[in-house]
Amino acid sequence: MTKNGGALLSCAGGKVELPDRSLVLVDRADGGNLVVLPPRPVWDRSELDARELTQWSFLIAATARAMLDALPQLAEGCINYWDAGNWRLNVAAEPAGSKSGPKHRSVHMHLLGRSRTAKDRSWAWGEAPVFPKYADRFAWAKGREPLNAEECAAIVQRARELLLERYGMKVRGT
Question: Fewer CB atoms near the end CB (10 Å): N or C, the chain?
């Protein structure tokens, strides 16, 4: 998913990563963007068994809450959850041509911070988010900065606490 060093956090529920640097959807100052991968690659969340889906849901919720708790830019803000993987189905995506969901899609969850003070019109407070077309995704994301190392460390620390305290999940290592 990313080209920037791998997982920020891994556990039985999956992995938390920064988005690929060239595909940041929300600038860090406007709320930030993290990606939560399920515990194994699947094309749709319905392919996860009950335990996997539960643990992935715990990881998503803990990470989102951690973003709200750790990021000052999200004071009185919120998180939008985007069940993603659709760009892999575009006819222009490799391999070029028509594709089916089960064969080509890889579901992941984008956590999109929504700041009350967002400067980007695509993320204006009180409006639905605006996403680019597949062909425009790189130009659209250009100039958007990912969350920085300090912000990521604070989110990971808080997510670890929440996973243990609220959901009884222990996190080892990364």
Answer: C
- Count the Cβ atoms, other than its own, within 10 Å of residue 76: 9
How far apart, in whole angstroms, are the C-alpha atoms of residue 174 and residue 152? 12
What are the tens digits of pLDDT across the range 55-92?
999 999 999 999 999 999 999 999 999 998 899 999 99
Distance CA 2, CA 21 (A): 7
**CATH code of 94's domain:** 3.30.428.10
3-state secondary structure of 172: coil
Residue 1 forms part of a structural domain: no
Would 158 be classed as within a structural domain? yes
Q: Do residues 54 and 63 make contact, with C-beta atoms less than 8 angstroms apart?
A: no
pTM: 0.94
What is the residue whose two structure tokens read 């990606």?
Answer: 35
**Domain extent at residue 65:** 9-166
Residue pair 47/70 in contact by the 8 Å Cβ criterion: no
